[in-house]
Amino acid sequence: MPKNILVTYYTQSGQLEEILTNLTRNFREQNEDFTVTYYQIRMKKEFPFPWPSDVFFNTFPESYLQIPSEIIPPPDEVLNKDYDLVIFGYQVWFLTPSIPTISFLKSEYGKKLLSGKPLITVSGTRNMWMLSQEKLKKYFKELNAKLVGNIALVDRHDNYTSVITILKWMKTGQKEMPKPWPDAGVSRKEIAESGKYGEIIQQYAQTGDYDGMQKELVKNGAVEIRPFLLKVERVGNRLFTVFAKKVQQNPDKRKFWVNTFKFYLMVAIWVISPIVLILFNLTTPIFWKKRKREIKYFQGI
Ligand SMILES: Cc1cc2nc3c(=O)[nH]c(=O)nc-3n(C[C@H](O)[C@H](O)[C@H](O)COP(=O)(O)O)c2cc1C
């Protein structure tokens, strides 16, 4: 009997779809051993892409507060199969799994498809996914789904370059940037090479014993941790909580608070975070052990 693999994802630009298509190529080719079912989450009310700037920032409160929207029910041929493994693709919106991801997880369909299953997360983000992964773990636990692997593909350029290029990409829909800027998002090369992770997963999926798989994935570049970004994410989460609550508690002043958030975000990225970076680097010898521990934790599952 072939093993059934379910690949779930949402994508706006097609980046995550391309990653997952390449990553699962070998499963499609080994069609005597595996069947692959792809399920793309679709929203009843779609988010625009490219994003008008005001809509982009207006998505922040619901995104950060993990408030779901309605999804279109998955087709019956997706729902009526029993799966041996789920490859769970997601992207991050405002330091949180995207609204479509959360909407699927909180839906009856998410429950039906993921409950009790072994699951591998695959993210395609700018570079801040670590605390989103922690947020996802809570859902997986509730669904009794077992996280057995994680692959986190990011833009490997420095934090500032990637902010500039991603904002332009989101606004124009064009991943290609005028020179000297590098293209936005996960690099072409890395997307093209993501099949190597599928080959590793395949060896373990054959037996259903995933012991040791994450180590092998990490050895092949699946998860790079930059402790400085973790620091930024932690500070960001604290401040995002304040702004999201302000919007929630003052619906009549939504526009004001969303605009204030947008202004704050720019100050945080361009003024506060360089200062944090300097302090962070200066304190490296003091926190060396703690940072090593954190790298190990976030490279694990
Ligand atoms: C509204 C919004 C907010 C985002 N916030 C983050 C973020 O906080 N951290 C991050 O690493 N990437 C962030 N991204 C980038 C996405 O994670 C993702 O890489 C990008 O949208 C491409 O995904 P796609 O496959 O849906 O096209 C954000 C994107 C959008 C649209």
Characterization of this structure:
With 301 residues, the chain is of the alpha/beta class. The protein is 54% helix and 13% strand. The protein has 15 helices and seven strands. It has helices spanning 15-23, 25-29, 53-58, 60-64, 76-79, 99-106, 108-114, 130-142, 159-172, 188-192, 195-207, 213-219, 227-249, 254-282, 284-299; strands at 3-9, 34-40, 85-90, 92-93, 96-97, 118-124, 146-153. The strands form two sheets. The protein has a five-stranded parallel β-sheet, with helices on both faces. A two-stranded antiparallel ribbon has the order 4-5. Helix 1 (15-23) crosses helix 11 (195-207) and helix 13 (227-249) packs antiparallel against helix 14. The longest helix is centred in the last third of the chain and has 29 residues, at 254-282. It binds flavin mononucleotide. Flavin mononucleotide binds at residues 11-13, 15-16, 56, 59, 91-95, 124-129, 166, 170, 185. Flavin mononucleotide is lined by residues 11-13, 15-16, 56, 59, 91-95, 124-129, 166, 170, 185.
Bound molecules: flavin mononucleotide
Largest sheet: 5 strands, parallel
Strand content: 5-15%
Low-pLDDT windows of residues: none
- Global morphology: globular
Task: Kindly name the structural category.
Answer: alpha/beta
Number-wise, the strands total 7
Number of helical regions: 15
- Note the run of SSEs as H and E: EHHEHHHEEEHHEHEHHHHHHH
Average per-residue pLDDT, rounded, comes to 97
Helix content: 40-55%
Radius of gyration of CA atoms, rounded to a whole number: 19 Å
Amino- and carboxy-terminal Cα gap: 29 Å
Widest sheet: strand order?
Answer: 2-1-3-6-7
